[in-house]
Specification:
Order of helices and strands of chain A: HEEEEEEEEEEHEE
Shape of chain A: globular
Mean pLDDT of chain A: 85
Number of helices of chain A: 2
Shape of chain B: globular
Strand content of chain A: 35-45%
Oligomer: heterodimer
Number of strands of chain B: 0
Structural class of chain A: alpha+beta
Largest interface: A-B, 34 and 38 residues
Helix content of chain A: 10-25%
Radius of gyration of chain A: 19 Å
Strand content of chain B: under 5%
């Protein structure tokens, strides 16, 4: 079966559209987002490396959320974590809410684990889509070592609605 | 006609020409001319298949080689250079395949191989773009985007390799989604969108291009969904049982397809193959009391039984029995009516453990009967529909049953030396007789398929 040229290239264009959409998804955040720096905290002693990317974790990867009823937050729920500036040009997580804040900078994440902390609070493990950083092959161990020593800072772009993307990983003295 | 059918036809023609010449129906000169004509055709068909195989392998190797070459020099490139290379390779594969081979008609098979290469490069592009821009999206989405992105090209270009790749990717996507949920500690064991995409997007393409391989792919992908749903609930007994019921359902659907138009009738053979092999494989294990004990325990004695998966076999049994009787009522052919009635009876027996707590030995005996009925039914179905592969499947299954029962029943009863001598002799004699039977059935099929 020999298709018409316009139909054939239109079908091929669908694939390019998917790829361009992937690029734009990241690019739109990187281009328009405000720059924020978060300290990369050490993760579990198990290997951080999977394939050729490292798994990053932050202080705000685990947050405490005030709740008015037990079990308010469940796995898969969207949460919003306010960002507050601290010393050294870094930011850290603050207030947690189940809807976007009216003002200020915040990150949008998804609850991956939730457990009761007290009658009025839950501890949440949250993913923001900034937990993987692809590294050149063979350099992962070095990055892992620096993360354990607390020397890495993640540079993010954060939009007004809480979406974020990783821009770079910087090294600093602990 | 597909290449395999053409090959069989030419082989039959050459045999017939020999017979005509022996019986004096054609002169020697005419027989030689006819032989040359069909032998050339047979060689041409064989060459054509060889071209298809080599070009497909070549396309896969070029695609992999391109990926490896780029990967080796990857780190030194700037981000947008990487994107340009990826897009260029992808467009180049498709454009080369279309302009040089498909459109010109010079080599459609090489063109099809280039399309497959493009399909593989598209998947590589998705992964590499995610790496370049550090995209942290839900990882199964990449596989889904790969599967769905291939479908427009499948419909436009009628590419069977891309259709099969898309079906395989949908099954992989389903597995990754279940794994993702499972790792989060979730218990959701189903993914209904899988069926929407499989039946709504892939099946129309299978029908449109009358792809037997695509139909088999859909049947197998559906089975993988059921198996993964069962595994994610960690119930071994119901998994075997559910897959057995699924195989029965495929056989009934194949019977229904044979009452429809020529396209569905042509595709029904694929479901017969997958259904026959699936039911035989699952019922082979259910012939053993230990497997039936697991099943009865899972149904009746698990204290934490929850969720829908344990009732799937029961629902399937009812569906299969009902469909089989409806289809039987519409069948003209006596054998097909008998087959549908037989499938309905098997389906009702299959529901038995859900109605009453059966002894595991009783259930195993029932499944021994079912296995024998299915294996002999497969042989009969293969002869009636001219499908040699079904005949082989049925005969193999029967032989395997005899060997398995011999080991199961006599291993502890006979002296070891005597056990192996008798067993070996029975197997040898049985193999010789079955091979004679298989050959005569195959000749009967080929004579019926290609006779004037």
């Amino acid at each position: 079966m020999v298709p018409d040229r316009p139909k054939f290239y239109a079908a091929v264009a669908v694939q390019f559209a998917v790829l361009v959409a992937m690029i734009l998804q990241s690019f739109s955040i990187l281009a328009s987002g405000r720059e924020v720096r978060l300290k990369v905290v050490p993760v579990d002693p198990r290997s951080l490396i999977s394939g050729d990317y490292v798994i990053l974790s932050y202080d705000l990867s685990t947050v405490t959320a005030s709740v008015d009823a037990p079990g308010k937050y469940r796995v898969g729920d969207a949460v919003y974590v306010r960002l507050t500036d601290v010393v050294g040009g870094l930011s850290e997580g603050g207030e947690v809410a189940d809807r976007p804040f009216a003002s200020g900078l915040f990150l949008r994440g998804t609850v991956r684990q939730a457990w009761e902390h007290s009658d009025s609070a839950q501890r949440l493990r949250v993913e923001y889509g900034i937990e993987s950083w692809y590294v050149p092959e063979g350099t992962g161990r070095e990055v892992e070592r620096k993360a354990r020593e607390g020397r890495l800072v993640a540079v993010l772009a954060v939009t007004g609605d809480g979406r974020s993307a990783l821009k770079a990983i910087e090294e600093r003295e602990p | 006609m597909k290449d395999e059918e053409q090959g069989r036809f030419r082989a039959w023609m050459l045999e017939e020409i020999e017979a005509w010449q022996r019986e004096g129906l054609v002169a020697d000169g005419l027989a030689a001319t006819l032989r040359t004509r069909y032998a050339e055709g047979a060689e041409s068909a064989a060459r054509s298949r060889l071209i298809s195989i080599f070009s497909t392998l070549g396309a896969i190797l070029v695609g992999l080689g391109a990926i490896l070459f780029v990967a080796a020099h990857w780190e030194g490139l700037e981000r947008w250079s990487k994107v340009a290379i990826l897009f260029g390779l992808l467009f180049g594969a498709y454009a080369s395949g279309y302009e040089l081979f498909l459109r010109s008609g010079s080599s459609p098979r090489v063109g099809a191989a280039f399309l497959l290469m493009g399909g593989l490069l598209y998947g590589a592009n998705i992964g590499l773009i995610a790496q370049i821009f550090h995209l942290n999206a839900h990882s199964p989405n990449g596989i889904l985007a790969w599967a769905l992105g291939l479908l427009p090209l499948v419909y436009v270009a009628g590419s069977e390799p891309l259709l099969l790749l898309s079906i395989v990717l949908l099954a992989v996507w389903n597995g990754l989604e279940l794994d993702y949920v499972h790792r989060l500690g979730g218990l959701r064991a189903w993914n209904p969108f899988f069926w929407v995409l499989l039946l709504g997007a892939a099946l129309p393409a299978v029908r449109r291009f009358s792809s037997a391989a695509g139909m088999a792919g859909i049947a197998l992908a559906g089975g993988s969904w059921l198996a993964l749903a069962g595994i994610s609930r960690a119930y071994e007994g119901p998994i075997l049982y559910s897959l057995f019921g699924y195989g029965l359902l495929l056989l009934v659907v194949a019977r229904w397809m044979r009452t429809q138009d020529t396209v569905w009738r042509a595709l029904s053979g694929s479901l017969d193959h997958v259904g026959a092999k699936g039911t035989l494989a699952m019922s082979f294990f259910l012939c053993y009391p230990w497997a039936c004990k697991e099943l009865v325990r899972d149904i009746w004695h698990r204290t934490a039984v929850e969720g829908w998966i344990q009732f799937v076999p029961f629902v399937l049994a009812g569906a299969v029995a009902a469909c089989a009787m409806v289809v039987a009522g519409r069948m003209q052919d006596r054998f097909e009516r008998l087959a549908c009635t037989g499938l309905a009876a098997i389906a009702l027996l299959f529901a038995l453990p859900f109605v009453t707590e059966v002894e595991d030995v009783t259930l195993a005996i029932v499944f021994n009967g079912i296995f024998l009925a299915l294996s002999l039914g497969s042989v009969r179905l293969g002869v009636v529909e001219g499908q040699g592969d079904l005949v082989n499947t049925g005969l193999w299954a029967f032989g395997l049953w005899v060997a398995a029962r011999y080991f199961q029943w006599f291993f502890d009863l006979l002296d070891m030396g005597l056990f192996f001598v008798i067993g070996g002799s029975v197997l040898l004699y049985g193999a010789i007789q079955m091979e004679k039977l298989r050959k005569s059935l195959q000749e009967k099929i080929q004579g019926g398929a290609h006779g004037p």
